[in-house]
Protein: Citramalate synthase
Amino acid sequence: MSREKRVYLYDSTLRDGAQTQGVDFSAADKTAIARELDALGIDYVEGGWPGANDTDDTFFAHPPEFTRGQLAAFGMTRRAGRSAANDPGLQTLLSTPARVVTLVGKTWDFQCKVALGVDLDENRRMIADSIAHTAATVNEALFDAEHFFDGYKSNPEYALSCLKAALDAGARWVVLCDTNGGTLPGEVAGIVAEVTKVIPGSHLGIHCHNDTENAVANSLAAVMAGVRQVQGTLNGLGERCGNANLISIIPSLMLKLGYETGLTTHDLARLKHVSRLLDERLNRAPDRRAPYVGDSAFAHKGGLHVSAVERDPRCYEHVPPEAVGNQRQILVSNQAGRSNVLARFREIGLEVGAADERIGHLLETVKQMEAKGFAFDGAEASFELLARRELAEVPEYFRLSSFRVIDERRWNARGELITLSEATIKMEIAGERHMTVAEGNGPVNALDAALRKVLLPVYPVLGDLRLVDYKVRILTPDAATAAVTRVMIESADAKGNRWTTVGVSANVIDASFNALHDALTYRLFKSGQKAA
Amino acid sequence: MSREKRVYLYDSTLRDGAQTQGVDFSAADKTAIARELDALGIDYVEGGWPGANDTDDTFFAHPPEFTRGQLAAFGMTRRAGRSAANDPGLQTLLSTPARVVTLVGKTWDFQCKVALGVDLDENRRMIADSIAHTAATVNEALFDAEHFFDGYKSNPEYALSCLKAALDAGARWVVLCDTNGGTLPGEVAGIVAEVTKVIPGSHLGIHCHNDTENAVANSLAAVMAGVRQVQGTLNGLGERCGNANLISIIPSLMLKLGYETGLTTHDLARLKHVSRLLDERLNRAPDRRAPYVGDSAFAHKGGLHVSAVERDPRCYEHVPPEAVGNQRQILVSNQAGRSNVLARFREIGLEVGAADERIGHLLETVKQMEAKGFAFDGAEASFELLARRELAEVPEYFRLSSFRVIDERRWNARGELITLSEATIKMEIAGERHMTVAEGNGPVNALDAALRKVLLPVYPVLGDLRLVDYKVRILTPDAATAAVTRVMIESADAKGNRWTTVGVSANVIDASFNALHDALTYRLFKSGQKAA
Structure:
């Protein structure tokens, strides 16, 4: 492996990523994600900041075993006016099992003076002493140069002298951080080119934030200018607009720019899986539009495009989707032709001959339904049910006879204005009549509660089904509340599978019921359930 | 204004953005968004593809008046073996009111041969003929060179000869498209530099897709290499991973790279508003982490950062948030802006002194309501009512005592499955009790019908009120149908005034009623109606 083409990956999901608004890792989350990063082939996995909070202390007390990469701990250079050996923060940091330690320090003269009130020479000594002490204690010491690009623009000599001090003191890597995320790729390339005249690229890292939507480009620009370590996070997690997204950087480095990383091509094909795993841990909806790994990343709409893609994928796919563990998705939309429908069939594993007359019939049904306002684009589960019903594969698990939902706003006994929703349903399962009533925070929620009350004892597999999103859209806005409504429901099971169903009706409750019906049926069908 | 520093902006939200999975613009949406783009200072607003579908035909039949920019129509070069003048597609395209027409054509030899089966010379003639015919008919002809970067890499001479043919035939702009989104910034810079040797940058445009998360960087790289038109979409809408995000590109061009656009600094400060407006139209949750305009883009967590930011914002803010209409957000102590509220007051024509104590009280109320899920950004009418109620200016036109809505799905006498919604309301007007019942196509429609049945005889001015849009958003998606819901209702009167109101509640019917209540009250208040 040629040394110049090897780029080292440093993941900060568990430290900088933990700063994301709404993200709150447990120590168990950290352990699971660290294992996954190690298995993927990431060289350095930053676990957190020992001493900063209980979660990080718990994690570092018993970190997972690493088989391919190394665990890194993050902390600060020593305080002003102390020796490195007597700095309590550094002592905590160096006492964990992590044998790689990353220290952050200042290189921006303005920040030293204004934010810290520290003399420039003392700041540089803080870097040198701390790195020397760390390098003598663990396997690798890294220096994160906070605000380096701002520092370089303000006072290049001073900023470079800080990097040099770290390198001379034994830092394995000196990492250039664009802390406030404001530097553009052209500047990064220019400044890194200057830095490499003083520090060899084989000792340089880059750490970018996405405040101008250029974190990925800045990281690639730095690598092309000579840097050989890239820091980032899974799915671009991080405070404000996020850190550089390793999930986007890795395939561009490996598939397009010819660099080598710790990942094999086999590992690369697990990229989508790892991206999803993080979302599942955080209980976040995956970003459909994520480069390389999003569900829409290789989605094709419209008959013309589709036949072009099938003739030669290069026209509309910049890499083979399988290379990153993704797959081509053919959307069924009102622009759909026969080739879309056939392609979609193959995707869901349905083998139907191109000449099968049922295709023509299904196409006709799809067109009629779309004219009524159905959108199968975002509702693949409803499309699959429709197709499989055409082939008579889907049992009728339950049959609704009637429902009634009452929403009532009134003053309760304590003089509060309250609104209650209550649903009564009558349904048939295996020839037997069921009738029940349930309350909810609205008519649809009440209906959902009543349906489950009847279905769960018969079909326990529905126990882990959750509704994760509910969207209503008015299709002919000029008729407003009297218009046709389209309801999309996204559901999930305990394994992290997600599927979307659609219902359309002049009555929004009716549309919601239809989407709910498909959501439940899809779960039953996919679990191989027979009709009761 | 120096010509070399002027970059022209071309928005494709209504055409390429319409390809986004799950996005389905109505003609009314298109008109509203086109108006907003024109008001922002975008040079070219691409409205769609005349002849491609009913929505685009409806839009182009009566497009809005433009005051600053120009409307563009998109289509294809003529078919092989036809004259441009006799090509039906071109005829449709040239017959709309749009005086700028953009034609897409091939420049990739591989694609001509494989996807089209067209001879390379004939392909180049198709470009030249179509552009010449278009340039002679409308004000400006643009040539979109599909797959240009792939084409250049495959056969640079041929790709360049196609561009040259378009320019020589009278194209105002030749636009380099990275159609499958696979080109990286370094390559874009290198290839554009070569192209500018043949075509002057003042005639070159760039059109990027985000498949490697580099669409913004690619666009900036092209501008820095000489290109003077940038194509993109609001919020990066577009198929697969999206198009280049103009919302991120514009501030980097203007605030960081010193370029001029059609936007003034005053326009730039409306950027967040425009970004939000699109999300509201599409009923999408805004992306918190969006560069420049996201709620988290200038959010600061934790004491250290916050005091550093307050000592000097440059440490953690790469541009002043106000420059793009955003604001700093301190996550620990949520300090909302007094000046923001004052600015909103001025906007609705309310003169209140900065020292007025009612401002503090209103600020507190707004904060509490926003914490509950109210969003006044897209619901100015509800905000105005809230503010005017604080100043005791809004009469109580009617008071609801209670309502009950029943939705029933059952088999009717003819054996059809029908769903009926029926609302009963009790209310007080001028001390008198009213009780009525009405039917509708859903609970909200029934409620609306019952309200009007009572109100219209008392307040005839409500006769021309129409509800033009109704949107529901779930605010805590992980609780799905049991979550808090926000309802936005857009209303209009016969004069074409439109206003949006908001209601929030755990119960969707309750939220809808509150938004309806505000919609009716706003109409009464604005017409100068006294309480009955």
